[in-house]
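Example record

One chain of 140 residues, shown exactly as stored in the release files.
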Amino acid sequence: MKTTASRDIDCATLGDLGLEPLRAIWRDRFGAPPSIRSPEILALMLAWRLQAARDGGLDGELRRALRRASSAPSPTALTPGTRLVREWQGVRHEVVVEPDGRFRHQEELHRSLSQVARKITGSRWNGPRFFGLREGEGAP
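Predicted structure tokens for this chain:
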């Protein structure tokens, strides 16, 4: 895999290129390109890879800190005692957030809101979206 450039590429101009030229640059520098079909996303990925190759990328300490942050509860986490209510097909469903972070629905404990939403609807749902905590709520 080639990681050093024989010629410099201005990352700011990558957004002006089409999918095939972006793949050609990736292939030249890093080997087989990802199977992404969006030129915008591929340009962003390529710009990051080029900058990381040039500047050294993320150091180990920062990489570990980012991993720890992703496993931490989000600052918008629901506090214990919060009640979420949703009507589904004429039935009112209430979920209570327990102190251990689980969710109580009809006297059963669940690890996630998605599990509760799946139990209510019988199909896969994003739990926060189902209970109106995220944009785009909208099942009949």
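Notes: Helices lie at 19-30, 39-55, 60-71, 113-121, 127-130.
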